Amino acid sequence: MTGIESAGGVGPGAQAGVGGPAVEFDAPRADLRRVGIGRDFWYPVAVSGSVRKGKVFATSFAGERIALYRGESGGVHALEDRCAHRQVPLSMGVVEGDALRCAYHAWAYRGDGRVSQIPYLSRECARPPRGVRAFPVREAYGLVFVHPGDPALAEATPLPELPLLGSPRYTTMTFSRTVRCHYSFMHENLLDMNHQFLHRGVVGRLRPELLGHRSDAVSAEARYLFTHDGGRRDRGAGLLAGEGVGRGGSADVMTIRTEYPYQRLELVPQGAQRPALSLWAVYVPEDAEQRTCHAYGLLTIEKPRVPGLLRMGWPLIRRFTERVFAEDRAVVEAEQRAWQEQGEDRNHEVFPVVLDVRRVLRANGVPIRPARPATADLVH
Amino acid sequence: MTGIESAGGVGPGAQAGVGGPAVEFDAPRADLRRVGIGRDFWYPVAVSGSVRKGKVFATSFAGERIALYRGESGGVHALEDRCAHRQVPLSMGVVEGDALRCAYHAWAYRGDGRVSQIPYLSRECARPPRGVRAFPVREAYGLVFVHPGDPALAEATPLPELPLLGSPRYTTMTFSRTVRCHYSFMHENLLDMNHQFLHRGVVGRLRPELLGHRSDAVSAEARYLFTHDGGRRDRGAGLLAGEGVGRGGSADVMTIRTEYPYQRLELVPQGAQRPALSLWAVYVPEDAEQRTCHAYGLLTIEKPRVPGLLRMGWPLIRRFTERVFAEDRAVVEAEQRAWQEQGEDRNHEVFPVVLDVRRVLRANGVPIRPARPATADLVH
Amino acid sequence: MTGIESAGGVGPGAQAGVGGPAVEFDAPRADLRRVGIGRDFWYPVAVSGSVRKGKVFATSFAGERIALYRGESGGVHALEDRCAHRQVPLSMGVVEGDALRCAYHAWAYRGDGRVSQIPYLSRECARPPRGVRAFPVREAYGLVFVHPGDPALAEATPLPELPLLGSPRYTTMTFSRTVRCHYSFMHENLLDMNHQFLHRGVVGRLRPELLGHRSDAVSAEARYLFTHDGGRRDRGAGLLAGEGVGRGGSADVMTIRTEYPYQRLELVPQGAQRPALSLWAVYVPEDAEQRTCHAYGLLTIEKPRVPGLLRMGWPLIRRFTERVFAEDRAVVEAEQRAWQEQGEDRNHEVFPVVLDVRRVLRANGVPIRPARPATADLVH
């Protein structure tokens, strides 16, 4: 399932998206919600199953539209989603072999972005553009990753490592959801476990106690002791508890870690040697202003001792996680709306772990490129 | 039903909304649709029945979001609708006794806006903010009023007086509607009775004759003689006529008065000693740019001589007033849209009463505070 | 059906819309999608049947709202759609004889825009405005045309000539559709016949070959030889083929011509003396920024040799043209969206005919007048 396709960009727009933090970007003082996500990483932009053979799938990274397509030979290609001719989305087009043909005037593109055919080109025609930007692509863990930064760095940049995914002891659930907030709200939400009040209807009364936290240039981590104090809880939560997760009276250790730009959560039940549950997540900005992100999550759960039990409980566990996620989404989207109305970040954070992750997200981010709304400039 | 709760604001935003007309505000020359409503008055922001015991109700005044909640002791509290921590709306929260707890990290607030508890606060945490702004609240006439201006002036500022509401001779209907226009269009609409053509399908042919008008620094008043000339009319209108209001051939005296910031209308049938109908209304800006207002109205009608008739006729009278209101709303919202498209006030008013009320609304208004859209400024 | 009504504008706004290209408008270098359409032409703004006797119809030209109404004497009048009093749309009003009465305070207007009555005007009232702008109107070919430019030029400006419309050999179908794009995308779409790939599901495999093209200051023309290569096609297309249009193996000559601001297409089957099909079209900007246009089209088809066949085939031909139009609309609207996201015209055109028509559209256009959004300026 894992494969590399290195693709050099061509055409005038090829280098547009490239570049690390600009010199004039004063990260420590920037409003965190105006900090763009670092580009020199692998980001998922689709679930593999959404990119079927011979089909095109429209996605985006931070406002850059991307046309993913899977050619005849099975590999996925990622092109800038604009025909070089008239800027019509290539995702409206047609896959032919390993090429993608624009729906309008039938220009054809190779997977590396070069124009391979213009059916009607004659001597009288002007010299056509060479092609469009292509993104390096890798496919792994059931996700399609692209590298939106400097293509020269792509090959040396590792994909995230998810060793439990290959283990026969574990099974994995994939999440893919749009959330209308800056990616930073998601990191802060997961790292600050003092928000269990929000989930009281699903998890009952959970008491988290911060055991410790640490942080460096690219990561922030918190460890909690979780005790269940009673109260109603969802059957999916109960099922996880029956398997050693969050049992009444028990105490589990939960470790949450942002390792830029990804985030992980691991839950180790009292006395256990390995995680009962592990979540890997990343929040990929969709729009140019990075006020909407796409959350991709891989939830890996230890298989239960009773065979077949997991299969029966799977829908309940999914429902439980969906409910928790829906509650989190409601508040982070409310935070984003507040920020937009207030025009600045007025949060007064008190919790050290959140202060840690904010510093990490600022330091590793890049300026958000100004959008070019066509509204203001008018012909005079 | 009437009660006072004086509440001093705390926290950094507490004084933000305070202040009378700024020195640099050139009221006589300002575009009236850019004049904000004066803040040092009591404004309804909810119907009492919408704020149930133990529940929160989200409302706003001129773009300031307000969380109203009714505590265990029955009183209503009005807090800035932003948790001081992460700016999540407190209206998503939970009432506990007379406190309000934020849904996200469970911070608790007292009715005066002070933070009363942060469940997880430890020595390692940063110093938390003190609280949020609280608005003085009074409840009267079935409405919840707040005082959005200088809190020091609240207690000495009288609520509007509505003596007929207490009288056994009269009965009252409450109206509460959002209208997408600047409040000034509403004042002009009611004061200029030459718009009966708009209501021709409901009231038939009504001929208003201006008997006189007067105006001072805070008020503008017009008196009309109303004669009904025939034409179809709504059954609710007929019912009012049967009770002496707008009878065919008869002539009623209608007095309409803006007494800043409220408006009243009284209708005295020919030969009668007291009003057959009295309307009190106020148009409370909802959004920061004050292009949408919430109209609160109390329509007081003399009880008919035949007992029981009013109860039977009540639905017809409500339908009649709803139809009239719907027609008025259509035109004032059209006026607002025209203003937005034209970017300035291009009205050419000819009627002296409207010129009077415009002067009053300008002189008693305040600058509209600039919104802070988070769109323009980007990190460079 | 053809009639002239010359109408001089009155009121302060009467001259606002008038004027040719401004001196400072550098047409050759302007972004084509920011070039406004030339005003000194006759433009359809409604289908005649939409303007019924005694009724008002709201339309617009490039953001100027227009109230069309047909008076008792049968003629259509076109007034600025704003009452001079309070800017309420006159299209909410009521036709009385040949006058139009505003719905709000019942001011009446004549067809030339002058106020003819204000029912309540008294000595105390201020001097009222004289009226609103009126547009010259002509009705022809089942369409209502207005002249939005300098009214002094209107009478001497000819309506488009459509000789086939009067011929008994031909029959005509009228199209009227809103398309959310700048009018220039429509001209380019029709002139560049290399986009048959877009219509492959409807027309099968059509091979266009450019026979020649020419262009001058006000026009651009292309001639193609069309050969049908097979492939499935729509039954409407087949029906046209049966009548000599696009038969399998045959070759038709198609001539497409932009003659500013209109566009024509004529198809002459091999060996025929006269067109089998002729389309006249114009794309009238609806909004001030000219990002939406209204396409009016008259499709004239030679009557078939078998009597009655056309009547039977008419619905199929309409469906065929609707399908082709829907496909074209999808791409031109995608082009407009791309332009808005990119903030500038990044098209890389290679085809000489499109380069020709761009030059013509730029040279005959005018600056788009800046809209006045009421958002930015606030009282300070």
UniProtKB/TrEMBL annotation, chains A, B, C:
The keyword Transport does not apply. It comes from the Bacteria. GO terms for molecular function: dioxygenase activity. SUPFAM superfamilies: Bet v1-like (SSF55961), ISP domain (SSF50022). Keywords: 2Fe-2S, Dioxygenase, Iron, Iron-sulfur, Metal-binding, Oxidoreductase. Residues 42-146 form the Rieske domain. Signal peptide: none annotated. This is Aromatic ring-hydroxylating dioxygenase subunit alpha.
